[in-house]
Design a protein that fits this description.
- By secondary structure, this protein is mostly helical.
- It has a single domain, classed as Ribosomal protein S20 (Methane Monooxygenase Hydroxylase, Chain G, domain 1, Up-down Bundle), CATH 1.20.58.
- It is built from three helices and no strands.
- Helix 1 packs antiparallel against helix 2.
- The chain is elongated and about 60 Å long.
Length: 86
């Protein structure tokens, strides 16, 4: 446990940031999985709405630095190919 006040504050702020970062990445993954599930089921309307949500979540994670830009581009490309193949 830290003894210095600034180190104690750092522990608190790191915990808050970790919570937010985890939420952003996990919500992105969940959105991608929901889209893939709808594509597999063959629901075009549901897949279309989930596609838009997934792309937004990927962009948000990339713009805030949670995932690399190349990973975001790869995910978006893969999701778009799946959508167009329906």
């Amino acid at each position: 446990m830290p003894n210095i006040a600034s180190a104690k504050k750092r522990v608190r702020s790191n915990a808050k940031k970790t919570t937010v970062n985890t939420f952003v990445v996990s919500s992105m993954r969940t959105a991608v999985k929901k889209f893939e599930k709808e594509v597999k089921a063959g629901n075009k309307e549901a897949a279309s709405t989930n596609y838009n949500i997934a792309i937004q979540r990927v962009d948000k994670a990339m713009s805030s630095g949670k995932i690399h830009a190349n990973k975001a581009a790869r995910l978006k490309s893969r999701l778009t190919k799946m959508k167009n193949a329906m």
